[in-house]
Amino acid sequence: MIAKLTGKLDSSGAGHAVIDVGGVGWLVEASARTLDALGAVGGDVTVHTEMLVGEDFLRLLGFARAEERDWFRLLTSVQGVGAKVALAILSALEIGDLQRALATGDNAMVARANGVGPKLAQRITHELKDKAGALGGIAGGSNPTLSATSGPLGDAVAALTGLGFKPGEASTAVAAASEELGAGASLDALVRTALKKAAK
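RESULT FIELD:
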């Protein structure tokens, strides 16, 4: 949806934006990160949307990036995670940090979000650990843990998953190997070091 931003509400956390599409104002729920990314009121914006429809409600959610919308859908697939909690998580954590937290089972990081207690954080990391690794390509940014990374990093992740490691484990191990070896590391060195990291 390409529109003009006409207002923002609650920009300190997950909140709302008002966007004008062809003269019609739409109230869009959004994460704090999306509200920040939309820029100044009055400017043209591109918003990726998700419509939630219930018996007595119709809600429009907006995302600055398609990747954030994909992660919203993934988060709301977990029992007990509604739109409000998913937006709170996306407000509290960068997508790369969220992917790392899920891949490593870091419940405490997920629990940083408002409305996410220890039990819910544990359920989220447990249910999404494998999915987050498999969907690494939607994490965005320059995070080297992404399975969709091209070149030696991506090849190393593919090699580890071919050996039976889960995508999240493979991504995390290759990222750790890359940090240790530096940017010019060969595929062979990355795989050998990542195997050692994954075995720990």
